[in-house]
Amino acid sequence: MRLLLLTALTMTAFAANSVLNRAAVGSMGMDAMSFGVIRLASGALALAALIAWQKRGFAIGGFGRGVAVAGLLAYIFGFSVAYRGLDAGLGALILFGVVQITMFGGAVLAHEEVPMTRWLGAGLALAGLIWLLAPGIDGGAGAAVSVAHAAAMALAGFGWGIYSLQGRKEADATQATAMNFILAAPVAVLLSWGLAGEIGISGAAALSGQGVALAVISGVITSGLGYALWYAILPGLGASRAAVAQLTVPVIAMAGGMVFLAEPLTLRFVSAAALVIGGVLVSMRKA
């Protein structure tokens, strides 16, 4: 029960990132990449202060740290670039679909036991997510899909899957998360400068005070502390259960949008959410 509650809290933090991003980018006109860089940098500063205060040390780590940092950067930049030309619902489907493939693949390669109930739960939850998010599902043709932006979102999903798989091996979740952010942040700043001209971000991209504040909240609380909690519970979850649990994130994010952004509640959302949550609960059962 404790693991289930901590997982629910972590998924809520992940969903809050989505709501904060949508509020800053959609309502306040902030560029998605600027949001991502500020989010990462503010999280790095807060986590650096935390581990310094706790005297955990700033050990860089070996090859595994490089893998985690690369995965984190792939997620942040793939996500930011993809949503410049991808429908939000389709983007979430690609992201979480690739996360499932990556993390289930990691479970199989690590010889982790994946019982039939977990495959069944994953199938139910993914079906609910497709029902909820797939464009054109009500009979419309849907918009043409940009292959480049879809590939960027697939890269984001692969990056997040790798980042999560690496977390199972970390002995100190807080210190590992802090070092991931600290090492990734300066690279993110340099990459954002290099990519700005390529993807059409001007130096005068909208940086409203409210938008920056939301990015900082996302970086410090729902990303920095949320990701540390994620690393802490990953060993107990295992790769396959962790993968399925994340299918709840779009559902929680949409519910948050209904509460905080006045988005409409629909029967389709209720039925799809029930299917997703039911599938996740089936998957969370011990083998």
Give a quick precis of the structure.
By secondary structure, the protein is mainly alpha-helical. The protein contains eleven helices and no strands. The protein is 76% helix and 0% strand.
Q: Radius of gyration, Cα only, in angstroms?
A: 18 Å
Instruction: Give the mean pLDDT.
Output: 86
Number of helices: 11
Major beta sheet, specifics?
Answer: none
Beta-strand residue fraction: under 5%
Large-scale geometry: globular
The span between the termini is 15 Å
- Helical fraction equals over 70%
Count every beta strand, where a strand is a DSSP E run of 2 or more residues: 0
Content-based structural category = mainly alpha
H-E string: HHHHHHHHHHH
Low-confidence stretches: 138-142
Account of the 3D structure:
The protein is mainly α and 287 residues long. It contains 11 helices and no strands. It is globular. It starts with a helix and ends with a helix. About 2% of the residues have low confidence.
